[in-house]
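Example 144.
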Amino acid sequence: RSLLVLNGPNLNLLGTREPATYGHETLADIETLCQRTAAEHDLAVEFRQTNHEGELIDWIHQARGRHAGILINPAAWTHTSVAIRDALAAVELPVIEVHLSNVHKREAFRHHSFVSPVAIGVLAGFGSNGYRLAIEHFAHLLKA
Ligand code: DQA
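Predicted structure in complex with DQA:
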């Protein structure tokens, strides 16, 4: 069984991007953490990042029938994209939304998420550990 881990815009810059907010880990470090956590539960992970909204939507469509769940950090599109929310709703796969930072203690424009209503739950503020916790929860769900 396989999980799709999707990362939105600017997350390719992790490590150097606003380290006070996002920490010093790179996206490659987070991928390693995801692969390791998934492997502990006999799950595979396909890990992707894009700065192009349409590409992310295509990947969500293609997940149907190929993946057991989607972990998504939609980054800035969290707060702007009805299209990503609709794509996630369309494929009818379990979704967990993850943010490195606690968006609720940041600017007001980060307090609203278009994605949360189609997610099982949201992890925000736990840094890369949020990705690990989300994968643990998928493992728990898929065992049941
Ligand atoms: C983010 C939070 C978003 O508000 C922001 O636009 C990001 C990253 C996070 O992981 O904390 O790019 O999703």
